[in-house]
Structure formats: C-alpha cells, structure tokens
C-alpha cells in the first residue's frame, strides 16, 4: 500500500509518485502552476476524475521527495528551519521548473539558496539559481566561479571542473558551464601575459658585480631597482614560479592575492631609486594594475539575457542586474556585436 502524505486534510486530489502519495488541494496547485491547472482541467484525462473527492492522479518520472517539498511549500506547510540541503535543492529546482511554479516558489527558494551559499561546492548552486530565477545570485555566482575555483590539475572540461552531476547539468542551457570555463582560461592567459610583460624588461638586464651594463654598453652606477633574481625569489616564495604551472593550478583570486603579497625587492620600497635603462618604471604599480584588471574583467553572466537573448543595449538596462555590454552566452551574441 502506498504511503499517503496528508499535506491538505481537505484536499480534493491525491498525487501519486511511485509508491508515495500526497493529498493536496487542486485549487492551491492550480493557482501556483499553469501546468497543474491544465492537468486538473476536464480536457485532460488526469482531470476527469477531480469531480469526485480525493481523486488520484499519477505523476510520472517525478522525484517523490521533491514533489513533497514543493507541495508543502505551496500549501504553506514546510517547516524545515535549517534548510533542505544542496542535493534536495537541486532536485527541487528540477520539479519546480517542470511544473512552472517558479514565481510561487521564488522567495522560499531564495532563502534556501542563501542557506546553502557557504557550501564547499558553490558551483552546484548554479542550477537552482538559474531555475528559480535568482538573477543577482546567478550573476555573483558565475563571477565567483571564474575567480575563485582552483584547478585540481585533472579537470579538462567544465563538467569535470565544477562537479555538477550530469543529470542536473543537463537542465542548464547549453554553453553556460563552457562559457564560465572559457572565460576563466582567457582571464588567466591575459594575467600570465601581463606578468610576463613585467618580468621581461627585468630579465633583459645584465649585471656585473655591483654594476649594470645598459643595452648600449654604457657603464651605469649601482642600480637600486629590482633584479630578475629578486623577482623570481619573490614569486617562488609565494608559489608562483614556474609561472605557467602556478597559473594553471591556482584560482585567479589566489593568483592575485599571492602577487600582491610578493616582495619584489627594493623597487617597491624606494621612492627615487637609481635605475638603469632597462628597469621597469614601477613594478609594484604594474602588479596592482594587473591584479585589478584580472578581478574586474569578467562581470558575471546575466540571467535575464540568457533566458531572453537578443536584447538591445537599451533593453539590457532593464535587466534585474543592469548592464550595458552583452553578458549572455557567446552563441547568443547579436550579429552586430560580434
């Protein structure tokens, strides 16, 4: 015998999910979901029986626990104080999306997402944020994923890196994870190029004891500026050398943090150093500029633009996270902006 969960004692419908049943109000579900409204209408076979009390309707391929949570929330009967947990939230988002009752679930789901935001697997909140339409959190999360998730050295794809289960990932629009993955690689590539441009002029300096020879072989007095050895030592102490390995391994935010912590020698401490013709103007300032560019280049994806592509610049200003530049998926990029 199926286990009956009485959500509404006066409910006129019993929903059946496998071996589990829920007694609910068809009126409550119809107000929350156009899918349920159609399901209970006389034109559908499932709705033919709703004229009699507590008629049974079979729901196929739905997770019983997720259906119970959704019906309980819609009937104002959900009493979990500490949240439902990350995996349940992912599955609940699937059912909510299927029955198109996001609007009715929105504020409850926003609280659940907020309860789960300190998880060790933040990328798994991407689907709930997308499904429940939490545009602000979706935008912040996509930027967080680009800047803060390290590479374990094994992940060669977006799916492997972010650890989202395949059955959940399939519900995300094609290209969301790939866009985040590609943006991270591009920002890292530019970050490495900027660091190498700082290193290159220092590496070209030639030293002889306490003296430095310029490119024109004119002898200069002792140079107080940073040398290639002090720069590499500074990078090494922070685990940033070899540079290519560090860029691949560390997250962008950690790379920037370690760059900021580097002691690059006298150049960052002397206001008016003696310098040779090959010395950079100001290593510390260049590092700070490189850090700022890396952390601000990607502004996060816009949920409204992804769900409603093809917006004009004026229409983008009406997005819940206003922006001027295109922030959807590359495949959605308007022809005039390629």
- The number of helical runs is 16
Radius of gyration: 28 Å
**Elements, N to C (H/E):** EEEHHEHHHHHHHHEEEHHHHHH
Strand order, largest beta sheet: 1-3-2-4
Average pLDDT: 81
N-C termini distance: 60 Å
Overall 3D geometry?
elongated
Helical percentage: 40-55%
**Category by helix and strand content:** alpha/beta
Characterize the biggest β-sheet. Answer: 4 strands, mixed
Topology, number of strands? 7
Q: Give the amount of beta strand, in percent.
A: 5-15%
Low-confidence stretches: 206-222, 266-273
Comma- or semicolon-separated keywords:
alpha/beta; four-stranded mixed beta sheet; elongated
Describe this structure in words.
The chain has 338 residues and is an alpha/beta fold. The chain has 16 helices and seven strands. It has helices at residues 26-32, 34-39, 64-74, 86-98, 102-116, 126-131, 135-148, 158-162, 166-169, 176-203, 228-237, 243-249, 252-261, 283-296, 303-307, 313-316, and strands spanning 3-6, 13-17, 20-24, 55-58, 206-208, 211-213, 219-220. Strands 1-3-2-4 form a four-stranded mixed sheet. The protein has a three-stranded antiparallel sheet with strand order 5-6-7, with no helix packed on it. A hairpin with a 5-residue loop joins β6 (211-213) and β7. α7 packs across α10, α10 (176-203) runs antiparallel to α12 (243-249) and α10 (176-203) runs antiparallel to α14. The longest helix is centred in the middle third of the chain and has 28 residues, at 176-203. The protein is elongated and about 85 Å long. 32% of the residues are buried. Residues 206-222 and 266-273 have low confidence and may be disordered.
